[in-house]
């Protein structure tokens, strides 16, 4: 775009020439500039073209000097004026090269922001759709942010020190979010920040029940701040399930309003723990990535969440795409990147396809996830739920729920069996969990 606002100052144009000139003269200078700048960082087309040739030669291991740069440019069809290239090569970066590199990078970011502002103006017409366009704005803003180079990446020695220091401080694991079932901790000791934990099952097997177990245990027992994004149930439905599970009051009694005095006593005992918890239930049909990101940014100002649960993927409003599979893949990837960005574990529920129903062995596998193989790739932990009595009411395993750890990027796989108590909308350890006076596991 043209216009005075986009035109860099004379000092920036001088800095561009100084950086490109230094890059032609010195491989070390070229490498230093390439750490921060790309050809698109330069305003002047000649500077951008020369720098593109230089960085290409760096990647190919070709010696860099003015004549060879000119040959590479001519070979690629860029018939630039050789005098101008040699003129750039004669210019040394007066003063600190890093100072000139920073000046070029800063002005490139400024122009990108102006382009973003123009983009926002263009899309803010009567056809504006917040669910689509706000995500596009955030994507472009994130792309601008990612061009700003921070500190140097850590060395192996620095990472080793950090790993050994973490190993020494075993108690710090208590600060992480543990799964709600004791036997599961053998395979997945904690839900790590940045992880995407995928829970899959066929309908009516217990996805929402297990999701609420994660939320209830983390918020009420571990005292974590938890965001439960429900696309299937209302906030009232979620709370009925939570109270039923925590107070052991039959869920049906909430539907037909038939609580007894004993039920009311049980509810009274757990009421304060719910009131004091930091569980946020955001029940909203058609949840989008944009809404979730906005909610997390708002929660960051209040101290941040330590766990997010999304129930469930196929009900989310997804970005436009050529196919449903691509839309699911984009949403899955977006959630994984969000987990990394906010440094929190995200538990994502998803439906499985009908594959298990057509097999003799009804046990689900990771490839049964509906519509997208990207789910398998993005997930750090993949949990599949299976109940024999969901399809065979005469099963000898009635009341048992298998939580199959089918994928575990940082640990072992296996199957954990828990007691499914559907009337209380919860699953429990097969052996009772006992608590020490300090609130930890005994």
Strand-pairing-aware structural class = alpha/beta
CATH class of the largest domain: Alpha Beta
Q: Please summarize the sheet with the most strands.
A: 9 strands, mixed
Under the CATH scheme, the architecture of the largest domain is 3-Layer(aba) Sandwich
Strand content: 5-15%
Report the C-alpha radius of gyration, rounded.
28 Å
CATH superfamily of the largest domain: P-loop containing nucleotide triphosphate hydrolases
**In the CATH scheme, what's the topology name of the largest domain?**
Rossmann fold
Low-confidence segments: 434-442
The gist of it:
This protein is of the alpha/beta class and 442 residues long. The protein has helices at 10-25, 27-34, 45-60, 66-75, 82-89, 97-123, 130-146, 156-168, 207-221, 235-247, 252-256, 261-275, 289-300, 324-342, 374-378; strands spanning 196-201, 225-230, 278-283, 307-311, 346-351, 381-386, 400-408, 414-421, 426-429. A nine-stranded mixed sheet has the order 3-2-4-5-1-6-7-8-9.
């Amino acid at each position: 775009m043209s216009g005075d606002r986009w035109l860099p100052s004379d000092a920036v144009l001088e800095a561009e020439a100084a950086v490109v000139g230094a890059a032609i003269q010195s491989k070390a200078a070229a490498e230093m500039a390439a750490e921060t700048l790309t050809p698109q960082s330069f305003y002047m087309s000649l500077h951008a073209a020369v720098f593109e040739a230089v960085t290409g030669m760096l990647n190919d291991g070709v010696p860099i000097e003015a004549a060879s740069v000119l040959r590479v440019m001519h070979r690629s069809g860029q018939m630039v004026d050789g005098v101008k290239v040699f003129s750039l090569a004669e210019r040394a970066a007066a003063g600190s090269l890093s100072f000139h590199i920073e000046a070029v990078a800063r002005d490139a970011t400024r122009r990108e922001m102006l382009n973003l502002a123009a983009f926002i103006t263009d899309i803010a017409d009567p056809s504006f759709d917040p669910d689509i366009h706000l995500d596009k704005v955030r994507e472009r803003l994130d792309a601008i942010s990612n061009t700003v180079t921070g500190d140097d990446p850590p060395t192996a020695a620095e990472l080793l020190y950090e790993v050994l220091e973490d190993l020494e401080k075993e108690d710090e694991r208590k600060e992480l979010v543990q799964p709600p079932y004791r036997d599961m901790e053998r395979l997945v000791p904690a839900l790590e920040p940045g992880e995407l934990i995928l829970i899959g099952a066929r309908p009516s097997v217990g996805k929402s029940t297990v999701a609420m177990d994660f939320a209830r245990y983390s918020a009420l027992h571990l005292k974590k701040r938890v965001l439960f994004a429900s696309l299937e149930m209302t906030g009232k439905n979620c709370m009925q399930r939570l109270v039923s599970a925590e107070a052991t009051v039959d869920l049906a009694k909430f539907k037909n309003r038939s609580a007894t005095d004993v039920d009311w006593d049980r509810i009274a005992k757990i009421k304060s723990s719910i009131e004091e918890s930091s569980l946020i239930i955001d029940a909203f049909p058609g949840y989008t990535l944009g809404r979730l990101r906005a909610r997390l940014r708002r929660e960051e100002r209040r101290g941040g969440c330590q766990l997010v649960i999304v129930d469930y993927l196929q009900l989310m409003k997804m970005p436009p795409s050529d196919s449903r599979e691509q839309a699911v893949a984009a949403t899955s990837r977006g959630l994984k990147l969000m987990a990394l960005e906010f440094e929190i574990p995200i538990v994502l529920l998803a439906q499985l396809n009908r594959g298990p129903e057509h097999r003799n062995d009804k046990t689900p596998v990771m490839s049964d996830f509906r519509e997208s193989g990207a789910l398998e790739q993005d997930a750090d932990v993949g949990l599949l739920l299976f109940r024999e009595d969901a399809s065979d009411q005469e099963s000898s395993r009635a009341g048992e729920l298998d939580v199959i750890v089918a994928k575990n990027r940082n640990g072992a796989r296996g199957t954990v069996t828990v007691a499914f108590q559907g009337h209380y909308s919860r699953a429990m350890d097969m052996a009772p969990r006992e608590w020490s006076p300090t609130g930890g596991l005994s």
